[in-house]
Amino acid sequence: MKLGIAGLGWWGGTLVDAVQQSPGLSFVAAYTRSRSEQDQQIAQKHGLRLTESYQAMLDDPEIDGVVLATPPISHCDQILAAAAAGKHVFCEKPFTMSRAEAERAVSAMDKAGLTLGLGYNRRFHPSWQDLKQRIANDELGVILHAECTMSGPNGLTLAKNAWRGSSEQAPCGGLFPMGVHAIDGFIDLFGEISSVFCLSNRRAVPPGNDDNTSVLFRTQSGLSAYLGTMMATAPTFRFQVYGSKAMALLGGTVHVAGQSSQHRRSGLFGTYLIQPIKGDALSLDVPVFDVNCAELEAFARAVAGVEAYPIPTAQMIHGVAVTDAVVRSSQSQTFEPVV
Predict the structure, then answer these.
(1) How far is CA 283 from CA 20, 50, 239, in A?
(2) Residue 269 in contact with residue 125, Cβ under 8 Å?
């Protein structure tokens, strides 16, 4: 499968790196608005043709699908254009800016008979898959509560024009850069979310967005969940599930500016612990695993008709509906239903 990529920033370059050893997947072209020296270096390193426009990349008959490593504010329009051009789409998270946009994007791809993939890469790690299976097998018992804390220092060094630092393009501080991974994780493990309550404020980052956001969730199945994101402190990732038989903890880190491409792809998780109500904790090995290669290869298999992409489009839409409710709650300071 031959791909074009829109966006060659630090994350776009990471995605291109991820498939260099993949036997059935390669990037052949790229579109980037800035055409910076770094963009040109990445293109030269991997033999990518730099196209003059996004539409020019869509018009290239050699390209089977496009990868969007662009700000989420542009995703809906870019997906609609790709659907019209007959190109499959792998979209980096966050998916879109609203549920209405998500529904439009999914509908356009469905009508065109094309595959849509979404880049929630943590789902693909073997340790995450193991946790999901343990929950399904009732090894943790009745799930009472889940929580995730994600923090990092990137908010202190964001450029003034960075979308991640804009309250219009990335409301509620770390919600879009980091927290949507946890929301997708809650949906993957526990099903749909019914209501949310959010507190979000700015403490240390320059004016323009928040850096400290806390969210409470109630799922339709009845369990509670918590998400905390911080954009101006040391990097950490902690995902915990509390059951009537045991507690599980997945620990790791988030993406920090300056990390190597290899670390961004394979260093998300570092610890995995199962603590039963009685007895010693079980410490499980965490394999080194390239989650970005895995998600792109899953996308290629879905395009080939081998198997469906692991994230159903209904969950893609629901995830956006949840973030809509989080943003509304941060403004209303009340519990908001997910609609």
Answers:
(1) 33, 47, 15
(2) yes
Examine residue 153 and say whether the peptide bond preceding it is cis (omega within 30 degrees of 0): no
Q: From CA 132, how far away is CA 313, in angstroms rounded? A: 19
| Whole-angstrom distance, CA of residue 291 vs CA of residue 269 | 10
Site of tokens 């290669």: 293
- The pLDDT of residue 295 is 98
CB-based contacts of 252, cutoff 8 Å, min separation 6: 237, 267, 268, 269, 270, 271
- Give the Å distances, CA to CA, from 265 to 38, 123, 288, 291, 294: 20, 13, 9, 6, 10
d(CA 92, CA 148): 21
Specify the CATH number of the domain 2-118: 3.40.50.720
Residue entry with tokens 């004016």: 207
Q: Give the number of residues written for the chain.
A: 339
DSSP β-ladder status, 193-201 and 336-337: antiparallel
Q: So what's the pLDDT on residue 160?
A: 84
Q: Report the alpha-carbon distance of residue 152 to residue 13 in Å, rounded.
A: 21
Highest CATH level, class, for 124-293+320-337: alpha beta
Tell me the C-alpha distance between 320 and 97, whole Å. Answer: 7
pTM assigned to the model: 0.96
Domain extent listing, the chain: 2-118, 124-293+320-337
Sign of the Cα torsion 163, 169, 171, 176 reads negative
Q: Which tens digit of pLDDT belongs to each residue from 13-62? A: 999 999 999 998 999 999 998 888 888 899 999 999 999 999 999 999 99
| Nearest alpha carbon to residue 185 among 103, 246, 252, 266 | 252
Strand pairing class (88-91; 65-68): parallel
What's the pLDDT tens digit per position in 185-211? 999 999 999 999 999 999 999 988 999
Q: Nearest Cα to 293, choosing from 335, 265, 328, 269? A: 265
The string of DSSP letters for 23-66 reads TT-EEEEEE-SS--HHHHHHHHHHT-EE-SSHHHHHT-TT--EE
Please give the order of strands across the beta sheet that includes 2-6: 49-50, 26-31, 2-6, 65-68, 88-91, 116-118
